[in-house]
Design a protein that fits this description.
The chain is α+β, with helices and mostly antiparallel strands. The protein is built from 3 helices and 6 strands; from the N terminus they run ααββαββββ. The protein is globular and about 40 Å long. Pfam families: SnoaL_2. This is Nuclear transport factor 2 family protein. It comes from Bradyrhizobium cytisi.
């Protein structure tokens, strides 16, 4: 009986620890998105690129970019377009083992013209930090 109570208490503690760890992880993923948007609006390309793993892949309408340095150069090109008022909203987030799949929408302005599109991202823990391992970004069709 005592052994059963001790085992039950241990399992409850493990479950609680998992919930706390999951909350911390969820916070990391939310912070990753928030910090990326803030860096984008500051035009801080190095901080934006740091959100990606060293061997990340980024697929955009302008091409596929492999590795953090190639992604950094692509992000510099994007910043040079003078997009502003960038924001992102995560609509879907699913955890699969060590991976988190996110999907959502982004918005920005080019001059006075609003633009928006969609994204998917696979996020992993890299050195204790949440980082983007793969990202696909699209631009919504006109009128959408």
């Amino acid at each position: 009986m005592v052994r059963t109570i001790v085992l039950a208490a241990f399992l409850m503690m493990v479950g609680c620890g998992g919930a706390v760890a999951q909350q911390a992880t969820d916070d990391q993923y939310a912070d990753l998105q928030k910090n990326f948007a803030e860096a984008y609006n500051r035009k801080d390309v190095d901080a934006m690129a740091a959100a990606f793993t060293e061997d990340a892949i980024r697929v955009t309408p302008s091409g596929m970019f492999v590795g953090r340095e190639a992604i950094r150069r692509n992000l510099q090109d994007v910043v040079n377009l003078d997009l502003h008022d960038y924001s992102v909203e995560r609509n879907v987030s699913r955890s699969f083992g060590n991976f988190v799949f996110n999907a959502g929408e982004w918005q920005a302005k080019l001059g006075d013209q609003p633009l928006h599109g969609y994204y998917t991202a696979i996020v992993v823990r890299d050195g204790g930090m949440a980082k983007i391992m793969e990202e696909t970004v699209t631009i919504a069709a006109p009128g959408q």
